[in-house]
Amino acid sequence: MSLPGRPEGDYRNAPHEGSPVSAAPAAGIAGRIAGTVRADIRELAAYPVANAEGCIKLDAMECPYELPEAVREDIARAVRDTPLNRYPAADLSALEQAVKAAFGVPDAADVLFGNGSDELIHIIVQACCNPGDAVLSPWPSFVYFDMAARFDHARFIGVPLTTDLTLDLPAMLAAIREHQPKVVFLAVPNNPTGGLWSDEDVQAIIATAPGLVVLDEAYQPFADRTWMPQVLDAPNVVVMRTVSKIGLAGLRFGYLAGHPAWIAELNKVRPPYNLDVLTQATLSAVLRHKPVLDEQAARLRADRGPLAAALAQLPGVRVFPSAGNFVLARFSGKLDGNAVHLALKTRKILIRNFSNAHPLLADCLRISVGAPAENAALLSALQEILSA
Ligand code: PMP
């Protein structure tokens, strides 16, 4: 959803978007809301989700492939046999074991499940931060680090990347020393830039951070590197993952792996029954076919290079190196980022516009790697748009 007259990625000063109501009660309600809802919340817009009906959808880093018939049959059986009249069971150890085995979580680590990793981000901030405590991340990065921190009364510190959108390690270390953050979020690879921070840089941040460092590996399936085997090596690290980018964005499932002592504390903040029975049943069924997910991720990873190379051939386009299932490109030819985004939208091709989100992202558009036909449609539309 892009609000009329407002740049995408700008969440401030949102107009209320409810259905029309009569003036008198509305005036009363407006007064009550002004006196009740936090001022900073009133100024926000809800997290934007575009209406994608009939569009080629390359805006949210979803996997473009549907699960094969055999997997869907398995899911259908598992869901059919799941009782809905009871709350989810307290003991999730079977699913925990399946997740640990499927995703290479060390035996000695524990896992915490979230309704998407978005929920885990909240849980971490809520468990760690008193009002006003700092939460820190390189910036721009995943916008929800900032939003969740604010919602949960923490103080968000975004440390600017370099103009090449790489990590500014000296600035990061200086900011960590200055602000003493309770939590540092590091998306590895980073969203929306696609960069993968070096091992040495990540290690230096872990060594300097006084509190918890969350290595958010949402895009790890498309990268060469994972911190998962080392999650227990430092006293202040947890690794967060999601299944959203590997074919299951509709499911809402994320997990956090870490030392049992960290997981036990964070678990106290988890909303009761946060993982519903249908998600549990579906995930258990899908994990029996884990190679299908791996194969889909491998296809996207293989298609990323050719897509990036083809984009880089277009006039006035700079493509930033990406280790995710997306690429970030800057459009500074005849048409700027906003114009290219709009022209693609008119052709029913959705990508994400960051042109107005942050000065470092001026004229930048983020493009998910799609199925081959979708990538081809995008490229031919861009050729047409940029040569017009
Ligand atoms: N972390 C990063 C870096 C992301 O980009 C996203 C989603 N775009 C998430 C976490 C959240 O993933 P989900 O809530 O779908 O698990």
From TrEMBL:
- On the tree of life, the source organism's domain of life is Bacteria
Q: What is this protein called?
A: Histidinol-phosphate aminotransferase
Q: What processes in GO biological process is this protein linked to?
A: L-histidine biosynthetic process
Q: Catalytic activity annotated for this protein? A: L-histidinol phosphate + 2-oxoglutarate = 3-(imidazol-4-yl)-2-oxopropyl phosphate + L-glutamate
UniProt keywords (A-Z) are: Amino-acid biosynthesis, Aminotransferase, Histidine biosynthesis, Pyridoxal phosphate, Transferase
Q: Which Pfam families match?
A: Aminotran_1_2
Which residues lie within the region annotated Disordered?
Answer: 1-23
Q: How does it assemble?
A: Homodimer.
Molecular function terms, GO-annotated:
histidinol-phosphate transaminase activity; pyridoxal phosphate binding
**Pathway info:** Amino-acid biosynthesis; L-histidine biosynthesis; L-histidine from 5-phospho-alpha-D-ribose 1-diphosphate: step 7/9
UniProt-listed InterPro entries: Aminotransferase_I/II_large (IPR004839), HisP_aminotrans (IPR005861), PyrdxlP-dep_Trfase (IPR015424), PyrdxlP-dep_Trfase_major (IPR015421), PyrdxlP-dep_Trfase_small (IPR015422)
The record, for NCBIfam families, names: hisC
Record CDD domains: AAT_like
To which protein family does this belong? Belongs to the class-II pyridoxal-phosphate-dependent aminotransferase family. Histidinol-phosphate aminotransferase subfamily.
Cofactor(s) required, per the database record: pyridoxal 5'-phosphate
Gene3D superfamilies for this protein: Aspartate Aminotransferase, domain 1, Type I PLP-dependent aspartate aminotransferase-like (Major domain)
Q: Sites of the modification N6-(pyridoxal phosphate)lysine?
A: 245
Organism equals Achromobacter insolitus
Q: Domain Aminotransferase class I/classII large spans what residues?
A: 55-381
- For this protein, what is the EC number? 2.6.1.9
